[in-house]
Amino acid sequence: MTETSSEWLEDVRAMREVFDQQKALVSQFPFPDYMHRIDGLKQLRQAIKDRHEVLQQALSEDYGHRAFGDTEIADILPLIHQIDYTRRRLKRWMKPQKRRPGITLLGTKLAVHQQPKGVVGIVVPWNFPIMLAVSPLICALAAGNRVMLKLSEFTPKTNQVLRELIADVFSPHEVAVIEGEVEVSRRFTELEFDHLFLPVRPTLDGK
User: Fold this and answer.
1) Per-residue confidence in pLDDT tens, the chain, 207 aa
2) Is residue 57 part of a domain?
3) The domain spanning residue 126 has which CATH number?
4) DSSP one-letter string for 71-106
5) CA separation for the pair 62, 154 (Å, rounded)
6) Which of 46, 141, 154, 182 is the most buried (most CB within 10 A)?
């Protein structure tokens, strides 16, 4: 079904409003603490486990057929592993990293402090809609960012499950799910994100 101009204009206005709200909150609360990030990752992990069969069924319906085992191996298990890996290392990643000041700054101390970028946009393709939505989401949340996910219009069943899953864990001010067709996607990529994750399909020569 193709969106009418009035429908996608309304979608774009709503998307812009969510973006502005997230940007404002970044200014007010720029550095989510360790426990806030860990708690979000824990809840996301549990939500994926609770809905793994529903995700398998939805993706199979979107594709006409996809073996549940393929989704488990290619999507669910790697995401659980990624969350566990991130949780084990996040405290270390957040610590300031010492640097040598060099001879010109003898007597001083230098350290790199990792900081969130702000609002991160993630454009999700149709071919791996679970993995390529949640994997970059994990990274962005662990780094302390707020996120907007643009899901593919070609996987509506999977989108519905992802939308419900994310809404159970995060408020739209933390993670917002955006849907819509080509014009919405174009307007999404034009938002002033602090970082935009956009998977690129490799060419035949690998470049």
Assistant:
1) 455 667 778 888 999 999 999 999 999 999 999 999 999 999 999 999 999 999 999 999 999 999 999 999 999 999 999 999 999 999 999 999 888 887 777 778 888 888 999 999 999 999 999 999 999 999 999 999 999 999 999 999 999 999 999 999 999 999 999 999 999 999 999 999 999 998 765 445 545
2) yes
3) 3.40.605.10
4) HIIIIIHHHHHHHHHHHHHHHHHHS-EEE---GGGT
5) 8
6) 141
Q: The tokens of 15 are what?
A: 């998307």
Question: How many C-beta atoms surround the C-beta of residue 195 within 10 A?
Answer: 16
Containing structural domain, residue 80: 10-94+117-197
Kindly state whether residue 14 falls inside one of the protein's structural domains: yes
Provide the domain count of the chain.
Answer: 1
Hey, what are 16's tokens?
């812009």
Q: Tokens for 165, please give them.
A: 């899953």
Residue 108 CA, chain-centre distance (Å), reads: 38
Pairing of strands 146-150, 97-99: unpaired
Q: What are phi and psi of 96, to 5 degrees?
A: -60, 140
Note whether residue 101 is domain-resident.
no
The reply to whether 78 falls in a domain is yes
Neighbours of 91 (CB within 10 A): 11
Cβ contact 6:90 at 8 Å: no
136/156 Cα distance (integer angstroms): 20
Which residue in 33, 75, 41 sits closest to 161, CA to CA?
A: 75
| DSSP symbol at 116 | -
